[in-house]
């Protein structure tokens, strides 16, 4: 829905200006509406040169009043008059609060409030003397300048909050990278309280005459200079080959969400070495300080989106801290955002000439801190060796340059030797050097450019024949951290670790059968993939060209463990050091408009100001083009790959559940007793979360959950199943099984009814036989052809009447 239509709809829903029933949330509901300002003391609309006003939210409860002349209602601290200004400033950012049956408007920046004088003019007064106003719905307000998503339709919502999810996963992103490396390398930002014209601007250093440090910018198709103007023309940026310009503006991210993205791992990122050597900065280079700064900004970002959607919790961007909350968010059709960390000296654990600069106590203290902040996913290392382990090196010329940074960070160069043959997978030689890419387009070329520009060169050691592997493995401090992460049920990302260190990490995870592991962006070598899959983890590649992405899917999928749900996704690394996929320039291009993978949303070419984007011409120039990229992938690979991408969110959530202690998808025992409280470790009347923790992950999730059953001498007997059915109130109402060996009051599946004796005979004579228990629950068994077909236990709620009980049996597929 376009903004004007949305504003009109909001106007229609809002209470009239004369109504007396305002609530605390009424101030949020003004967003994007068109209103005249009515003074309660004057009893009429205030006459202004600018009004009526479009209410453009800057934060929860704060607004720009954007006038019909495309100006802003602005206070003057010197004259205490209220006038119109052509630019948004702090003095135009009004806080709106409910005051009885009206509103009061204040300017926090000036510590003044809005009122009217005797002549009826708007003036600034002490907040204690604030005037009272109402907003009268009006017409004629211009739309505030903003990026369009060019997507129509309602994003898919699952029918049940606890059921199977549908959607795609982004496993490796740096949404707040505009603040890292001192805050002066990245140009633009993902949001600004005054909107796109203020967020999407280039760095001053990129303008003509200020190019002393412009060499850090990744080359655009052979060009070292670019048009620095962003909004509204975007002539040269964002660009799929640039790593220093904003690509994840909130409206671009919104388009990706509308296009089917449902899980988003936002890694708080920093590299102290690169920050220190880069000459321009406005933020501290301490990595943990940067993590905290970006954490605050991520929450501010969530608040900003909430403000655009009508109040706290109403936005589509939701930070989550456990897999159960994440599933509910995804099934609401929103974006579940998982917070993670990727820095070079995690918890300030650097090393100088092999001497650690941290302790286990420091690691424990800072791990407790970030876990309390909601961080649930971490890499141990980034570009350089640290006190936790050895790093994987970059390829080609970039590696030569980044090695100089390792010496700066640690006092020594990488200690590489020829890699030993890999006995686990002779088809793939493990190596700490990723596949080389074309000069100027390497995934981490920004690091090399900064080091080359601002560090003096040194004499590199002579290494033996490639392939090269770092001789430094996981240290005792690194092992301590991995074990503490498992204790806290966090997700371990072994990317960027050297082969030896990564193998050490995987061995620790294997010793505990720990599923919480993900290779998120192509920095683990293929020898590790089968081990990650066998643990129940995920392998997610970086999406370069669409053809290479399809090729990665074809190579990775056969390594999966069929025991677990397989889902695919991508780790774009946008905002960090990662370039994005360029135009494919091949046959069968994307045609516009097209449908999202789930069919719920129609997407046309994306518009941003005066720029129109086309995946066939621009590649993934900005994050909002990922739905277009996935459509291109569909043209190349077909529906099977799209289905795997649509299972990406579910695969991630199930991996996270197992990390959180939920038993994996094991088959139920071929023996089990049904009692008045439950069966198969699941209790009647438990919530879905409780049932999941006790009963483990089911094969299917809907209103009923199904589990496979072991045979007496087999891991699975496909003829039988166990079922859990939920009430509309999301409580376990029925537990049933068709497996021989499962019994209720000595009644076992498969028994001839004529042999039933004692209490069992009191069940009744119909094909469904039930006995009420003291708790109000019922033990149930079904009969077919003289034999017991299933046994079950139903809660008092589910068995309130015979008809209701039969409805639950039908729901479970037993009638």
Summary tags:
globular; 9-stranded antiparallel beta sheet; 7-stranded antiparallel beta sheet; alpha+beta; about 800 residues; disordered N terminus; 19 helices
Put simply, the count of helices is: 19
Distance between the termini: 45 Å
> Helical proportion?
10-25%
Radius of gyration: 30 Å
The computed structural class is alpha+beta
Description:
The chain is an alpha+beta fold and 815 residues long. 24% of the residues lie in helices and 20% in strands. The protein is built from 19 helices and 40 strands. Strands 1, 2, 3, 4, 7, 8, 9, 10 and 11 form a 9-stranded antiparallel β-sheet that branches. Strands 32-33-34-35-40-39-38 form a 7-stranded antiparallel β-sheet, with helices on one face. Strands 13, 14, 15, 16, 19 and 22 form a 6-stranded parallel β-sheet that branches. A hairpin with a 4-residue loop joins β1 and β2 (44-45). α6 runs antiparallel to α17 and α13 packs across α15 (626-637). It is globular. The two termini are 45 Å apart.
Strand-helix topology:
Elements: H1 3-13, E1 34-39, E2 44-45, E3 53-59, E4 62-67, E5 72-75, E6 82-85, E7 94-99, E8 102-107, E9 112-116, E10 122-125, E11 133-137, E12 151-152, E13 168-173, H2 196-199, H3 250-258, E14 261-270, H4 272-277, H5 287-308, E15 317-320, H6 323-331, E16 335-343, E17 351-352, E18 355-356, H7 360-372, E19 375-379, H8 396-410, E20 416-418, H9 445-454, E21 468-470, H10 476-487, E22 491-493, H11 499-511, E23 518-519, H12 529-535, E24 538-539, H13 546-556, E25 594-595, E26 602-603, E27 607-608, E28 611-612, H14 615-618, H15 626-637, H16 639-646, H17 648-659, E29 672-674, E30 678-679, E31 682-683, H18 688-695, E32 700-701, E33 704-708, E34 721-726, E35 732-737, E36 742-744, E37 747-748, E38 768-772, E39 778-784, E40 787-794, H19 802-811
Parallel strand pairs: 13-14, 14-16, 15-16, 16-19, 19-22, 23-24, 29-36
Antiparallel strand pairs: 1-2, 1-3, 1-11, 3-4, 4-7, 5-6, 7-8, 8-9, 9-10, 12-26, 17-18, 20-21, 25-26, 27-28, 30-31, 32-33, 33-34, 34-35, 35-40, 36-37, 38-39, 39-40
